[in-house]
């Protein structure tokens, strides 16, 4: 059985809700986002799991600052303190998930 797959990136920056829903559906099928960059999303296979995702744009991000700028790191820490686990990041996106239904998206 295939353990990795690549899917063409079809989401725009204003489609975070649709992107989150897509990631949740993929997780139920056992596919988890490993990397998002350029026009490709890379997924890896694992045990299917019910997850809630938060696909967030990093405040002040740009193609020049990248995914691991100081602001992105601070933003990531704040989200993790709020109960969200870091999944991966792209140029503009920070992707988090939780399996805890009580964790709020703030």
CA radius of gyration: 13 Å
Biggest β-sheet: count, sense, barrel?
3 strands, antiparallel
Arrangement of strands in the largest sheet: 1-3-2
Stretches with pLDDT under 50, minimum 5 residues: none
Shape: globular
Helix/sheet category: alpha+beta
Mean pLDDT: 87
How many helical stretches? Answer: 2
- Our measurement of the CA-to-CA distance between the termini, rounded to an integer number of angstroms, reads 38 Å
Number of domains: 1
% residues in beta strands: 25-35%
How many strands in all?
Answer: 6
Classify the helix fraction into a percent range: 10-25%
What pattern of helices and strands is seen along the backbone?
Answer: EHEEEHEE
Could you walk me through the main structural features you see in this protein, from its secondary elements to its overall organization?
The chain has two helices and six strands; from the N terminus they run βαβββαββ. The chain has helices at residues 16-28, 70-81; strands spanning 4-8, 31-37, 40-45, 52-57, 85-89, 93-98. A hairpin with a 3-residue loop joins strand 5 (85-89) and strand 6. With 106 residues, it is of the alpha+beta class. Strands 1-3-2 form a three-stranded antiparallel sheet. The mean pLDDT is 87. The longest helix is centred in the N-terminal third of the chain and has 13 residues, at 16-28. It has one domain.
């Amino acid at each position: 059985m295939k353990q990795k797959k690549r899917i063409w990136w079809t989401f725009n920056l204003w489609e975070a809700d649709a992107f989150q829903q897509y990631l949740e559906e993929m997780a139920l099928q056992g596919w988890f986002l490993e990397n998002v960059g350029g026009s490709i999303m890379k997924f890896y296979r694992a045990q299917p799991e019910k997850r809630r995702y938060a696909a967030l744009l990093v405040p002040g991000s740009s193609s020049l600052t990248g995914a691991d700028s100081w602001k992105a790191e601070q933003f990531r820490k704040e989200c993790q303190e709020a109960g969200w686990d870091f999944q991966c990041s792209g140029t503009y996106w920070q992707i988090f998930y939780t399996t805890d239904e009580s964790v709020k998206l703030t």
